[in-house]
Write a structure and sequence with these properties.
The protein is α/β, with parallel strands linked by helices. It has two domains: 55 residues, no CATH class; 43 residues, no CATH class. The chain has three helices and seven strands; from the N terminus they run βαββαβαβββ. Strand 5 and strand 6 form a beta hairpin. The C terminus is likely disordered.
Length: 106
């Protein structure tokens, strides 16, 4: 996918789970592509070196577990931490959390 200027959802879906998508300085990804990257655990690094926040790593057990179980979930995000609850008989039940590491920018 070298030298692409626009990355779409299907481009990201074709990448292996947990891989890295490096966008060149003139490249961009559609919102759907960034959503797909989150779901597949693909880290997105932009041309300026910034990393897209929220891309889960393969070790995020709560997110992986959630993707394996059908259900209704509530996700609350605060300061880079997502807390996940699963609705069981209409009652939120703790399910897990996902923490993302944001790259410091100067």
């Amino acid at each position: 996918m070298a030298n692409k200027r626009l990355y779409t959802e299907s481009d990201v879906a074709a990448l292996p789970r947990g891989s890295v998508l490096s966008l060149g300085k003139q490249a961009m990804a559609t919102p759907a592509a960034l959503d797909m990257a989150f779901v597949r655990g693909v880290r997105v690094i932009h041309g300026d070196g910034a990393e897209s926040a929220g891309a889960p790593g393969p070790s995020d057990d709560a997110l992986q577990g959630m993707l394996k179980q059908d259900g209704t979930y509530i996700v609350t995000v605060k300061q880079g931490q997502a807390v996940i609850a699963r609705l069981v008989d209409g009652v939120p039940t703790p399910f897990g959390s996902v923490t993302t590491q944001k790259k410091a920018t100067n």
